[in-house]
Amino acid sequence: MNEFFKKIPFIDNILKGIGQIMLQENRWTGLLFLIGIFMGSWQCGVAVLLSTAAGTFTAMKLKYAQSEINAGLYGFSAALVGVALAFLFDTTLLIWGLIILGGALAAVIQHFFIQKKIPVFTFPFIIITWVLVFALHHFTHIQPSAMLSAEVVPSKYDDFLTCTNGFGEVIFQGGVLSGIIFFVAVFISSPIAALYGLAASILGAGLSQLNGEPIKEIHMGLFGFNAVLSAIVFSGVKKTDGLWVLIAVLLTIIIDDLLIDNHCLDVVGGVFTFPFVAGTWITLLIQKVFIKTKA
């Protein structure tokens, strides 16, 4: 099977780009993510493929570094733009066009930050999606996706399912099975990252519950997915890695709860992965100051 991917590197790069949504440069992780997305919605699955392909193709045509393309670095923000638009809006011809255009633009913005050596994470996805959601809401009559209005049937409250749901919501998937598949997908690439992510999702759910957030939304993983990403960034086998994970996760949860409670970003569609990016950036700054002081 590995020989197949070597013969068709474009497909390999797309799968790695999808895997990089949770910072995993692993084609099998990307493939499992894709399966989990298609299980939730074929529109989201097709959107992810189109937008990731658009981002990867743009990077190739603009002759960005082949090592970066091969690692999937121009795919993950593009993938999230695609799945976000397909999840939020009825998939009209305009939305499909914006999915492709947004994927291409995500690669260009990603490249700018890579060139500046700034750890941008999913920030290109956030900016593009905020702008598009605002514009679509105010200047078009495109209806919200049926997925938004569908009634979520709550399963029996279970701590494990709540924290795996945190993995699912990273890619806008609320299904229990999708969340479990995403957790397994990260685990086969990096067990330590998956376990830290699981712990972060539990912490996010627990603290949000103490903060009085709606139990149904906590169970869906809406207060855990940003924490999952922050934990994965700093995960490692050193004891100090655990400390940085804790700092990043706590900051992310605080930012997440504050933004949601005050409806700060409702006008642009929601917080998306901004709490993860903000919490991680602050933690990296603290880390930098700590290392400089220690030296």
UniProtKB/TrEMBL annotation:
Belongs to the urea transporter family. It is a multi-pass membrane protein. InterPro entries: Ammonium/urea_transptr, Urea_transporter. This is Urea transporter. It comes from the Bacteria. One of its GO terms (molecular function) is urea transmembrane transporter activity. It comes from Chryseobacterium artocarpi. The record marks 273 as: Important for channel permeability. The chain crosses the membrane at residues 31-59, 71-89, 95-113, 120-139, 180-206, 218-237, 243-260, 267-286. It is found in: Cell membrane. Keywords: Cell membrane, Membrane, Transmembrane, Transmembrane helix. PANTHER family: UREA TRANSPORTER. One of its GO terms (cellular component) is plasma membrane.
